[in-house]
Design brief:
The complex is a heterodimer of chains A (111) and B (110). Chain A is built from no helices and 11 strands. Chain A is mainly β and 111 residues long. In chain A, the strands form 2 sheets. In chain A, strands 2, 4, 5, 6, 9, 10 and 11 form a 7-stranded mixed β-sheet that branches. A 4-stranded antiparallel β-sheet of chain A has the order 1-3-8-7, with no helix packed on it. In chain A, β9 and β10 form a beta hairpin. Chain B has strands at 4-7, 10-14, 19-25, 29-37, 43-48, 52-56, 59-64, 69-74, 83-91, 99-100, 104-109. The chains are: A mainly beta (111), B mainly beta (110). Chains A and B meet through β4, β5, β9 and β10 of A and β4, β5 and β10 of B.
Chain lengths: 111, 110
């Protein structure tokens, strides 16, 4: 049963600390997405990659967020330094040209 | 960018009732998906349906792309159907980026 996996599932950190979230896409999917869900903004796209190349990161605050895909089985999203307004659930999704499948999310709390 | 509106925002049902959720979008789409976000926060794929009609058990969906709307039907609702239902679309020039509606919060009482 292929699925997207994300680690950690929960993260509590203090303001100013670095946070790294990891995602393993479904094997064979060539597109990986990072979304963020908050009560105020709902679900919004932060960045995505196709064949490991970044295609669009316009949804990300560039000064503190970075997304990479070092290989086909790993995507990372880093926040440095973290701020309380970054508290949200971060979802990774993967797909092949059409349907997207979401991971379980990382619930981030920045105090 | 493309706009996605879902209605109703909230829906309360008794177990066994039927319901229809609507998704309107402002432009042509390459992809339309319905998701159920369960109380644990997981986003579960229900349908990939850029056009036409599909059925899966008690759930079915219809997308009329030319009129820019999609409907999700839930029949004989169960308490496990509770959660938030999202419609999400990829606009014609969005290269895979899903734009989500605000969701319909469904509560099914026993």
């Amino acid at each position: 049963d292929a699925r997207v996996t994300q680690t950690p599932r929960h993260k509590v950190t203090e303001m100013g600390q670095e946070v790294t979230m990891r995602c393993q896409p479904i094997l064979g999917h060539n597109t990986v997405f990072w979304y963020r869900q908050t009560m105020m903004q709902g679900l919004e796209l932060l960045a995505y990659f196709r064949n490991r190349a970044p295609l669009d990161d316009s949804g990300m605050p560039k000064d503190r967020f970075s997304a990479e895909m070092p290989d086909a089985t790993l995507a990372t999203l880093k926040i440095q330094p973290s701020e309380p307004r970054d508290s949200a659930v971060y979802f990774c999704a993967s797909g092949n040209r059409a349907e997207q499948y979401f991971g379980p999310g990382t619930r981030l709390t920045v105090t | 960018g493309i706009q996605v509106e879902q209605s109703p925002p909230d829906l309360i049902l008794q177990e066994g009732a039927n319901s229809t959720l609507r998704c309107n979008f402002s432009d042509s789409v390459n992809n339309l998906q319905w998701f159920h976000q369960n109380p644990w926060g997981q986003l579960i794929n229900l349908f990939y349906i850029p056009s036409g009609t599909k059925q899966n058990g008690r759930l079915s969906a219809t997308t009329v792309a030319t009129e820019r709307y999609s409907l999700l039907y839930i029949s004989s609702s169960q308490t496990t159907d509770s959660g938030v239902y999202f419609c999400a679309v990829v606009g014609g020039t969005s290269y895979g980026k899903l734009t989500f509606g605000q969701g319909t919060i469904l509560t099914v009482h026993p």
